[in-house]
C-alpha cells in the first residue's frame, strides 16, 4: 500500500531563519513543523529531536530531516526509512515537490486496521466456505435419505402395476395410482424446498417485489395442492378481505403459502379442515394458515425457525419432510419485510401467521417513478 493517501496536508509552517525559542512550544505541541520560506521553498522538518539534540539559534542550522520521501513509496518501506533515520515523521514529495507529512503512529494504525480488516475478511470467507460445505453435506444427506424413500415407494407401486395390471380391477388400480401420485407430490415438494434452500443460501434467488392479490394466489396454490388434500379428504376454506393486496415477491409468496398449506395437510388427520384468511392490519396484511390437526408442543414451537437442520416429524399419513420448508418461509417472509409466528389453536391444531407490506398504489407509483428516473 502506498503512503499517498496517508499524507497529512494540514501542518504548521515556520520561516527557516526564525529562532528556536520563537517556535519551541509549537514544535512540542505538534511534534513537527514544516520549514518553508515566503516563496514556498522547502527546507526540511523541525522535530522535537532537533530541539533536544541540536539547539542552535536559527532553525535552519539544526534541521536533520531534509530529504523528501516519494508519495508512491509503500507504508512498510516508509516505516523502514523512519527506523533508519530514527525519526517518527518524514516529509513527502510528489514529482520532487513537497506535499505534506507522514507520521509513524498513523502508518502503524493503518497497518493494524488493514490487518484487522484482512482477518475479518478471511474469517467471513472461511465461514462462508464452511456454510457452503455444510449446505452441500445437507443436500447430499437429504437426497440420500429423504428423497430416496418416496422414490422407493413410487418404484414399488409402478412395479406392482407392471406385473399385475391385467389382474387388478379398476378400483385397486386407481388406489395404487393415487398412492403413486401422493408420493410423487411429496417428492416434488421435498425437491423444490431443497433447491430453494440451496439457492437461498448461495444468494441466487432474485427479490422482485410487485403488486400481489392474496386471494388469487391462494386460489392457485390451493388448486395445486387439492389432489394431495383430497387423498386425506381434507377440506380447505379460503377467506380474504377486499383489501388483501400486498407488495411482495410473487414467487416467494407462492412458496410461503405452498409450504404452509403442505405443512397443514401433512399434520391434519383424515377429514380434517384447513382455513386460510387474510386481513389488513395497519400498514400490513396478516395472512393465516390454520389447521385442526395434531398441533405441536411449546418446545417444538419455540425452536421451529432456529436451525437449518430441523428434523421433520412424519405426518399423520407418515409423510416425510426435509425440515427446510418453515426455514424457507421465515427467510422469504423476512426478505419481504414481514414477520412470521405460530399460534396453537384453543381446541386443536396449529395456526401459522405472517405479515407482508400492504400495497398502496399511490406510494408504489411514486417509487416506480423515482426508480425510472434513477435508471435514466
Name of the CATH superfamily of the domain at 207-364: Histidine kinase-like ATPase, C-terminal domain
Distance between the termini: 37 Å
Q: What structural category characterises the helix and strand content?
A: alpha/beta
Tally of DSSP β-strands = 13
Largest sheet: 5 strands, mixed
- CATH fold assignment of the domain at 207-364: Heat Shock Protein 90
The stretches of 5 or more residues where confidence is low (pLDDT under 50) are none
Could you say what the CATH architecture of the domain at 207-364 is?
2-Layer Sandwich
Instruction: Tell me the number of helical segments per DSSP (H or I, 4 or more residues long).
Output: 11
What is the multimeric organization of the chains shown? single chain
* Helical fraction: 40-55%
Q: Give the strand order, joined by hyphens, for the main sheet.
A: 8-10-11-13-12
Rg result: 36 Å
Q: Write down the CATH class of the domain at 207-364.
A: Alpha Beta
Query: What amount of the residues lies in strands?
Result: 15-25%
Mean pLDDT: 83
Amino acid at each position: 500500500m502506498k503512503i499517498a493517501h496517508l499524507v497529512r496536508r494540514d501542518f504548521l509552517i515556520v520561516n527557516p531563519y526564525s529562532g528556536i525559542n520563537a517556535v519551541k512550544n509549537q514544535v512540542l505541541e505538534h511534534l513537527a513543523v514544516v520549514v518553508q520560506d515566503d516563496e514556498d521553498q522547502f527546507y526540511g522538518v523541525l522535530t522535537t529531536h532537533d530541539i533536544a539534540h541540536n539547539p542552535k539559534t536559527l532553525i535552519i542550522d539544526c534541521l536533520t530531516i531534509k530529504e523528501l520521501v516519494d508519495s508512491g513509496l509503500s507504508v512498510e518501506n516508509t516505516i523502514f526509512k523512519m527506523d533508519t533515520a530514527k525519526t517518527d515523521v518524514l516529509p513527502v514529495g510528489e514529482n520532487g515537490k513537497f506535499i505534506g507529512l507522514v507520521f509513524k503512529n498513523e502508518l502503524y494504525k493503518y497497518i493494524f486496521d488493514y490487518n484487522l480488516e484482512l482477518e475479518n475478511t478471511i474469517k467471513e470467507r472461511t465461514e462462508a466456505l464452511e456454510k457452503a460445505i455444510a449446505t452441500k453435506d445437507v443436500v447430499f444427506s437429504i437426497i440420500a435419505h429423504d428423497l430416496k424413500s418416496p422414490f422407493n415407494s413410487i418404484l414399488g407401486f409402478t412395479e406392482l402395476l407392471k406385473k399385475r395390471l391385467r389382474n387388478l380391477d379398476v378400483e385397486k388400480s386407481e388406489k395404487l395410482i393415487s398412492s403413486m401420485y401422493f408420493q410423487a407430490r411429496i417428492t416434488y415438494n421435498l425437491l423444490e424446498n431443497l433447491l430453494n434452500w440451496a439457492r437461498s443460501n448461495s444468494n441466487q434467488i432474485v427479490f422482485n417485489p410487485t403488486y400481489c392479490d392474496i386471494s388469487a394466489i391462494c386460489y392457485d396454490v390451493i388448486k395445486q395442492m387439492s389432489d394431495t388434500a383430497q387423498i386425506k379428504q381434507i377440506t380447505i376454506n379460503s377467506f380474504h378481505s377486499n383489501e388483501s393486496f400486498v407488495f411482495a415477491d410473487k414467487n416467494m409468496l407462492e412458496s410461503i403459502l405452498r409450504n404452509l398449506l403442505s405443512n397443514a395437510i401433512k399434520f391434519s388427520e383424515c377429514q380434517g379442515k384447513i382455513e386460510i384468511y387474510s386481513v389488513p392490519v395497519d400498514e400490513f396484511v396478516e395472512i393465516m394458515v390454520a389447521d385442526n390437526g395434531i398441533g405441536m408442543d411449546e418446545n417444538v414451537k419455540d425452536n421451529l425457525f432456529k436451525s437449518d437442520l430441523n428434523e421433520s416429524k412424519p405426518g399423520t399419513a407418515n409423510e416425510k419432510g426435509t425440515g427446510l420448508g418453515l426455514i424457507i418461509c421465515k427467510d422469504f417472509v423476512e426478505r419481504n419485510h414481514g414477520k412470521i409466528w405460530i399460534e396453537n389453536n384453543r381446541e386443536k391444531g396449529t395456526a401459522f401467521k405472517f405479515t407482508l407490506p400492504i400495497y398502496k398504489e399511490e406510494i408504489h407509483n411514486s417509487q416506480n417513478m423515482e426508480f425510472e428516473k434513477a435508471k435514466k
